[in-house]
Amino acid sequence: MEVILCPITGFCSGVRAALNRTTDMLKQHGPPVFILHDLVHNESVVNDLLSRGAKIVDEPEGLPPGATLIFSAHGVSEAVEARARALPLNIVDATCPLVRKVQERGAELSKEGHVVLLFGKAGHREVEGILGRIHGEKHLLTNEEDARAFRPVPGRTYACISQTTMNSDVITEMTAILREKIPGLVESASVCRATLERQNAVRKLAAKCDLVLVAGSAHSSNTRRLCEIAAGQGARAELVSGPEDVTPDLLRGAKCVGVTSGASAPDDLVHGILDAVKRIAATEQAQKL
Ligand code: SF4
Question: Do 169 and 209 share a domain, yes or no?
């Protein structure tokens, strides 16, 4: 069995920066440090933060005066930010700059008078944060079907933007569908560079492998997109949350196994999974001899 590690794995810059800021706050102020929702969508990362004294909260209200409250890499809506800043808290904004850019672009397009069409996943924190920065008319379109069903109003102008971790192929398709029915559509939908690089890398990896293991959490949008893309290339794609998920049954029949990860999976998790695959491959090889 051949085993290939994807050249791009581990934390993206936004996740790394959010984790570093949280670690700095824990060092500076000591525990507890409060985080509004999960800092990133990865259980092992969140559990590590909890073990070091971070606490996850769902609302900014009810924290002790002077407490440190961190906004996650996914960002928050304007209303949530205003509520938090009105309280006697030390606010640390760890919103990824690339998410912030989409929030600002959405607000700007709306101010210019366009109806904003956001491509993204309903209920995702990043999506809620972006929608909550757009004051004018906006619509969330989750997939190609939504784009096909969308009916523009004559006389209005439209602009599209997207969640940073969508499948780039889906964005291309949705934009093409809307372009057909909306003359002058302002096309600003794209994934962030980290997502694009990971998606391109998994496409190449899946073309060489019959099984692709994607390290990460089922709650992570970018991780699930990598699974979809690998499966779209014809490989069997499995999301694995740790080395314990890697079993001989999972690898059965695979001649070439690729290992990659979502942007919120730590390097040690990826290498733990890679080692587990190699151990099973070595045992199978030894049994054949
Ligand atoms: S996936 Fe992209 S937008 Fe999201 S945190 Fe990472 S770098 Fe930022």
Answer: no
